[in-house]
Known about the structure:
Layout: H1 3-36, H2 45-58, H3 65-83, E1 87-91, H4 97-106, E2 111-115, H5 118-126, E3 132-139, E4 143-144, H6 146-154, E5 158-166, E6 170-173, E7 182-185, H7 187-192, H8 194-200, E8 205-208, H9 212-221, E9 225-229, H10 231-236, E10 240-244, E11 253-260, E12 270-277, H11 284-294, E13 299-306, E14 314-321, H12 327-339, E15 342-350
Parallel strand pairs: 1-2, 1-3, 7-8, 7-9
Antiparallel strand pairs: 3-4, 3-11, 5-11, 6-9, 6-10, 12-14, 12-15, 13-14
Helix pairs in contact: 1-3, 2-3, 11-12
The structure holds the ligand C=C(O[C@@H]1C=C(C(=O)O)C=C[C@H]1O)C(=O)O.
Amino acid sequence: MSDELKKCREQIDSIDDQMLKLVSERARLAHEIGMLKNGGPIYRPEREAQVLRRLLSQNDGPLPEASVTAIFRTVMSHCRALEKELAVAFLGPLGTYSEEAANKQFGGVSSPVQCASFDEVFRTVEAGQADYAVVPVENSTEGAVGRTLDLLVQTSLKICGEVELPVHHNLLSKSDLSSIRKIYSHAQSLGQCHEWLNRNMSGIERIAVASNAEATRLAAEEPGTAAVASKRAGELFGLNLLAEHIEDDPRNTTRFLILSNHDVAPSGKDKTSLVMATRNVPGAVVQLLSPLAENGVSMTKLESRPLYTGMWEYVFFVDIEGHRDDEKVAKALAELEARAAFVKILGSYPVAVV
Ligand SMILES: C=C(O[C@@H]1C=C(C(=O)O)C=C[C@H]1O)C(=O)O
């Protein structure tokens, strides 16, 4: 070993010693805070977002932003676990993008609750069998996840966070590329790889199944089939990587929501999501939204979804900047509630951190 290398390693050892001391000290403080919470929620997404934003504003490299947040989310997860281990429900089995999103947001999930459908994810948390739900709500290529929107209308749960996950798809199989006759995946993922599949796997049957991980499980069992899924799913089921990054848009990103039974305090950079319906009269939508503009509240999303109760009737999903406790947001919401046939505030929560 060269002297130079030995010296650097000694320095790393000494830094590690200091880091361990500091992390332990941090964990002791988090535990103390846990006692002060007096039975209130342990997980405080607004505080975690503030911790991460503050650190990012000081980060001069060499670690990229996503590395800094991943490290500190893991630290916070372990500090939190001294207070309580959170049970987090998501669409299973292990290896889904939902699992990846849950791991990203919570810095690792020690008590995962794998559900068979989005309906079950909601029900599990509503019934108190898990503390948090993680569900996809929209994708940059494919748009809204309809079932999640429908469930949001009915649920008693509140949105308490959002997480954005860059989604890279892969073609995975135990067979050779030339022998593939069927491709399994979730419908959303097939849509996100539509052009690549047309170009490279034309004429080969595509079959939509409940999740990407389920697709991987099927492909592992059936020779001559492949799955479109994450690398992690492929590893879990022992599949080989036939092609990577097959998504049509390399920036392909899915936004997930975190849901729970509690509200979240303002973090300083928040979003509020609501769903509403208007009376079916001319100009109703414009009229309904005007309190936002009048109070200087920016709308970041407007999505319509058909109502099952009638033909050509819709509900509107709206995201606005700010927390419902912010003065101008509160005023705009009060005016909006007075005009709409139906309004439900789905939650105020911190804007996603890298
Ligand atoms: C320590 C706390 O509890 C949890 C852990 C946090 C942390 O480790 O920084 C931050 C917020 C909470 O999710 C706290 O509320 O401050």
